[in-house]
Automatic annotation (TrEMBL):
Residues 701-724 are annotated as: Disordered. GO terms for molecular function: medium-chain fatty acid-CoA ligase activity. The keyword Transmembrane helix does not apply. It holds the Pfam family AMP-binding. The keyword Ubl conjugation does not apply. Keywords: Ligase. This is Acyl-CoA synthetase (AMP-forming)/AMP-acid ligase II. GO terms for biological process: fatty acid metabolic process. It comes from Methylacidiphilum infernorum (isolate V4) (Methylokorus infernorum (strain V4)). Residues 715-724 have a biased composition (Acidic residues). Residues 187-558 form the AMP-dependent synthetase/ligase domain. InterPro entries: AMP-bd_C_sf, AMP-dep_synth/lig_dom, ANL_N_sf.
Length: 724
């Protein structure tokens, strides 16, 4: 194995070498390549027999009395020996940082020694395709040493995350082009369906998809001089072919959001400098105010313009020729790395959209991370119903299937729940990735037998209400796990997941699932937490801005150095989400930083108030209530809170509810606005930016001179409610 940082290992003095996880094969390579003789102890055996450990001469610490283990380590260190403690010995390589064995923590607490974190990386070899031009690398990474002090546990966990992140970033397979990898994968799957268009029920086999995409790529190469090509299509056969063709042509696909309105899209079109756009006739008729470029191509008629003979010949060549020759003839580069692969625009829920260029390395890294998260659950079929202008839809429903993921059954509209449920039943789909808003519709409208094939549901984009997850699991018998990500992270950062091969409800079944959290950090990603006001680094257990670094993290916003500078600190991407991490590595999200209001010198989280209202008003308004708390300017206090709700409740009810739950009076909203339905984003979550606009408008109108001076003061016992 190659070493990085071996110079940190002392040449003569004793030291504790702390290795988070290893297999017996890893340890053999470690011992054979370390520059000094080292004694090895094992903190925790995971599905490894004790006899195997003893045969190798290793000390199983969990089977050794605590005092005896501490004494043994101290004696070895006093003789200037290197003592390697393997936190967890496993039969297969692992890449996720979770809990620290108690016996190891006790030993470190009782000995005074130099501590050196080490990461043995044989993990990623299992998650890169055999079609990669470069074989996965195996190496040993050594972090900088430290003497034990009061914050050593936090430092050690951060060190393991850093080394894990470095291990993934150094994988040579991440330097490839996603088009190159898709080419190899589609050749492997030439006679098997890769996508099935759920709307037309037509399958796309590897060779059919490859042949059609290569034909379109040739046309794009000859007729589109600009580096970026626009796409305005729902997920389906046409969108898959066009996106892949754009990549094959050496261009960058830009999938525009068809739901945000003309003003937002005008910004996106102008910033991306797109001059050519692929869309559909029905969309052009429906979205007349979209800023259509002069060169807008109707995809269906465009594909029909090619003769059947030419299409057949393209498919024939795609099937016949080896992938390297195909790549040479069509000019598909092998290397992509840090070059821009796709351009996405944020939804603009908290302002105008930002261009997020994701590199080939970003996408390949995140797909590898997704594979690790789901490594305990064999997934053969995925429902692809998320829009591909959204980061979760782009990576999980488009690029993952094209780069070695499951067979994906796509459908154009995520709102047609009954149709989606029929597709799940028809194709025996095993994985559903959705949002809590859509999940609630499945619970309401679908019978249990329709979803019997599902192994797991993963939700993201908004907070999963525990009651909803419990109700869904009770009705359908399918576990619901909450995940987390951002567009800037390509997008997956973490996810809860169960192990279906373990007894239902057992500790092993839920070892990687902790309700209320968003799961453990994806392998190969590192984390820091910064104080929201001072930006000082905090312990991971503290509440602050979650910040990340890794191969899946983007490098900056499109042509926007000011926003880029504001979103990074010393190389760490500041997510804008406030949260913390527990001692087992589970991540907890409290809210977005822009969903806090500073009132009376106190940071007030809007999401916590919403949760309180859902809990306190449940009997009065039911479970399906939509609630949004927003902050608007206030001349006296700087900011005041407003509740928007789709039930008729009054200020006194809101105040009574929150005070009964122990909330401070500072946290009590002063106005309630009733709406039939709260504004939503394309993924069905509440659009807080539009809510804030509504609240601000109502506040201004409430204080116009023409308003009645006898109107009840918000917050008084008299009912006071605005209907919008």
């Amino acid at each position: 194995m190659d070493w990085i940082g071996r110079e940190w290992i002392p040449s003569s003095q004793g030291a504790l070498l702390l290795v988070y996880t290893a297999t017996l094969q890893d340890l053999e390579a470690f011992e054979n390549s370390i520059p000094r003789k080292t004694v090895v102890a094992i903190g925790e055996l995971k599905e490894v027999k004790e006899e195997q450990v003893l045969l190798k001469g290793y000390i199983p610490l969990e089977k050794t009395p605590k005092e005896e283990a501490i004494q043994w380590v101290e004696e070895k260190l006093q003789t200037h020996s290197l003592v390697a403690i393997i936190f967890r010995l496993t039969p297969f390589p692992e890449g996720t940082v979770s809990s620290f064995p108690r016996v190891v923590l006790d030993i470190i607490e009782h000995v005074q020694s130099l501590i050196i974190p080490i990461w043995i990386d044989s993990f990623w070899a299992h998650f890169f395709s055999s079609a990669n031009a470069y074989p996965p690398s195996k190496r040993i990474l050594v972090g900088s040493p430290k003497m034990r002090d009061e914050d050593w546990k936090d430092w050690l966990r951060k060190s393991f995350y850093d080394l894990s992140s470095q291990a993934l970033s150094l994988q040579p397979g991440l330097e490839e082009n996603i088009g190159w990898q898709a080419l190899y994968y589609l050749k492997q799957k030439k006679n098997s369906p890769v996508f099935i268009d759920g709307y037309s029920q037509k399958p796309l086999t590897g060779k059919l998809l490859l042949g059609l995409a290569l034909k379109v790529a040739s046309w794009i190469s000859k007729n589109v001089p600009e580096p970026r090509v626009g796409v305005l299509l729902p997920i389906g056969a046409g969108a898959v072919i066009i996106n892949l063709a754009i990549i094959f042509a050496g261009k960058i696909p830009v999938n525009f959001n068809m739901t945000v309105g003309s003003a937002m899209n005008l910004i996106a079109v102008e910033r991306s400098k797109v001059k050519t756009l692929f869309s559909a006739k029905t969309l052009r008729e429906k979205l007349q105010d979209f800023p259509w470029p002069k060169k807008t191509i109707e995809t269906e008629s465009f594909l029909k313009s090619f003769s059947k003979v030419s299409l057949f010949f393209s498919i024939f060549l795609a099937d016949l020729l080896p992938p390297k020759i195909v790549a040479t003839l069509w000019g598909i580069p092998r290397l992509g790395g840090e070059k821009e692969a796709v351009l996405l625009f944020t939804s603009g829920s908290f302002g105008e959209p930002k261009g997020v260029p994701l590199s080939h390395k970003n996408i390949l890294a995140n797909i590898a991370q997704i594979k690790t998260i789901l490594s305990s659950i064999p997934i053969k079929r995925l429902l692809g119903a998320l829009p591909i202008f959204h980061s979760f839809g782009s990576t999980t429903c488009l690029w993952w299937p094209l780069l070695g993921g499951p067979l994906t059954i796509s459908y154009v509209n995520p709102l047609e729940i009954e149709k989606l449920a029929s597709l799940i039943e028809q194709y025996q789909i095993e994985l559903l990735i959705t949002t809590p808003t859509f999940l609630r519709q499945y619970f309401k409208k679908v019978s249990p037998e329709k979803l019997r094939s599902l192994k797991i549901v993963i939700t993201g984009s908004e907070k999963l209400q525990r009651q909803l997850a419990t109700d869904f699991e009770s009705k359908f018998g399918v576990p619901v796990c909450e995940g987390y990500g951002t567009t800037e992270a390509s997008p997956v950062i973490s996810s809860n997941v169960i192990d279906p091969f373990q007894p239902l409800g057992s500790l092993a079944y839920n070892q990687r699932n902790r309700p209320g959290s968003v799961g453990q950090l994806a392998a190969g990603l590192s984390i820091r937490i910064f104080d929201p006001e001072t930006r000082k680094e905090l312990p991971l257990s503290s509440r602050g801005i979650l910040s990340f670094k890794g191969a899946n993290i983007f490098s900056g916003y499109l042509d926007d150095p000011l926003r880029t500078a504001a979103s990074f600190q010393e190389g760490w991407y500041l997510s804008g989400d406030v949260g913390s991490m527990d001692s087992d590595g589970f991540l907890y999200i409290e809210d977005r930083i822009n969903r806090f209001s500073k009132i009376g010198g106190e940071m007030v989280p809007h999401g916590t108030i919403e949760e309180g209202l859902r809990k306190g008003l449940q009997q009065a308004v039911g479970e399906d209530v939509e609630i949004a708390v927003v902050g608007i300017p206030d001349l006296k206090k700087g900011e005041t809170l407003v509740v928007l709700i789709n039930r008729k409740v009054y200020n006194w009810q809101v105040r009574k509810c929150l005070l009964a739950l122990g909330f401070s009076r500072l946290w009590i909203p002063k106005r309630v606005i009733y709406l039939d339905s709260l504004p939503k984003t394309p993924l069905g979550k509440v659009d807080y930016q539009r809510c804030k606009i509504i609240a601000s408008k109502e506040e201004i109108e409430a204080h116009l001179p023409s308003q009645s001076q006898d109107k009840a003061i918000p917050g008084e016992e008299e009912p006071n409610q605005i209907q919008g």
